[in-house]
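Protein entry
_____________
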Amino acid sequence: MKAADIRMCLVCMLTMLSLLSFSGRVEQVPNGAVLQVSSVEKQQIENGTVYRVVVKHADTANYAVYNVFIPAGVERVRGVFIHQHGCGMEGRGASTAYDIHYQAFAKKWGLAIVGPDLYYRNGCNVWKNPESGSGPSLLEALEMIGNASRHAELKDAPWLLWGHSGGAYWTLAMMKNYSQRILAAFCYSPAFDPVWVYPDAALKIPLMIRHAGAGDANASDVRCWQTAVNTFHKLREKGGLVSIAYTPYQNHNYSFVRYMAIPFYESVLSKRLPTGAQGSFKEMKDMDKTKGWLADTLSLNTYAYDKYPGDPAALSWLPDSIVAAKWKEFVITGTVIDRTPPPVPYGLTKKRLHNMAVELTWKADADIESGIKQFHIYDGARLIARFPEHGVYQWFDTNGDDAIPMSVLPEMKTVVMVPMAADSTLSISTVNHFELESSKVAFQSK
């Protein structure tokens, strides 16, 4: 059995065990379903806290598990990033809460991160519709975790939605059902082609849809390319703030979507995030669409909104010139290159163990553009060690966008062999996934 399969089995076993320990809280939700909610579990990790709660539909075998990360030092949660997995990806949603790349994004903007796992007897054919309970159970989980974490504002904080395949259908459905709560949405190969009519409030939500062309999951009941195109026209013709990122040389399960999604979200957050004392979704600012940019998916030309001579509804709408430039790079190359070095490590200490061995510890925030590949340790100008010694510190797969490894990462701690004379010359740097290196920082003795 592969290591990834072993981890998956462990996640599933822990989930099933958790179902045996419900606290007995029962909630009636608007559609008549009864939700039974477990007690909230809490795990302290390096960058903050992960809270976990299970919400079970009392009259069915359906249940949902939510892992929610709240960064250390955040006095008030300003928004919630919800990363919804696709069909058949149950058991991997929790990895988002332990994703140091997304954690850096959350720390910068004061966000909570939600990694849902929707375990439904009939799979995504049921949970993809929020009315099945996947909408109300999310609300219940956020309220429970908000109370447990002393962040009661979590209940009303506005949402950033991300969804893949069946999860992207769920994201579009949430735009229909909960449009007034949503800051922005990103859909990665959305499936099943919704037939509903969106409310006017959904037209205010900046939405980016990535698809891979006519070969993107071309089964008759899925057709992600068709969902993307039809959703674009349905919303754009009514003035919706929607764009398509078309990468035909990739496929349904292969795309570096986070490199496009994060700058898209950051642009929207800078313009829509509430600044009031309460920070509720009711205080979200509307976008000024005339200050956005337009993008032609055929010619790949981009235009300032007020400079385009034709019908703006025929083109993709993007929030600003920076996103327009990254959109163009993404649809041409399939990625967005990180051109800036990562932040430097901090909290460095060193401890002499004996005449040759030194124990080093440090902390680091991930590069918000491309995460952490590894750390380089120097004796003066000479590279003497890498951490980890082999492989990378954390990566993500290009299918479900899940963190690898998907659980708690090893402590930033290692032992190097150097003579006592080298004590004052030890330093460390962070390397991101585009091989850019931070400045070196010297270790201090304990």
Notes: The radius of gyration is 23 Å.
